[in-house]
Amino acid sequence: MNIVCLDMEGVITPEIWIAFADSAGIPELRRTTRDEPDYDRLMHYRMDILREHGLGLADIQHVIAGIDPLPGAADFLDSLREITQFVILSDTFEEFARPLLAKLGYPTIFCNNLVTDGAGMITGYRMRTIPSKLNTVRALQTVGFTPICCGDSYNDLDMILAGKAGFLFRTTPQIRAAHPGVPAFDDYDELLEAIKAAL
Questions:
Q1: Is 15 among the catalytic positions?
Q2: Of 44, 74, 83, 96, which residue is most buried, by most CB within 10 angstroms?
Q3: Could you read off the pLDDT of 170-180 as tens digits, one per residue?
Q4: DSSP-based three-state secondary structure for 179
């Protein structure tokens, strides 16, 4: 049984940290998994900057409330629902994702959780499993699913390569060049046709 596994940020929603960086005027926070392959290093870098500026979870959630899915993303997911099952596999956090999921018809998402202190400052994070996306794809395979995977960043590559088929979507030139054997698309219609062909 086929199932499509989609990354969230950069594929169906904007990058949350980039939106927050721009809103807060902290360009250092624009660094994402497209730039840094080591997720733990990236998160500690982010938490250090937040602490330095006295910014907490509520500040980020305030910005997220004003973010909409990428243009065409909701229609893409509706079209995908008509032909197969899908799940969003993301290294984002439940505390970030909820408002965006409401704008996408509440798709299923497997993601992580933040740890905060009494003042609402982000002090850590809990990964659902490590590596979260690859382990989830492998688990789906053990219960009879055949994953078709799509993402845009370094932390998506393992699941993309482990699936029945895998695609890059709106990725960076560097990632595209480093993985020439992985089909790469920039348009939802093209991605949908590629998924249909892989089913």
A1: no
A2: 96
A3: 999 999 999 99
A4: coil
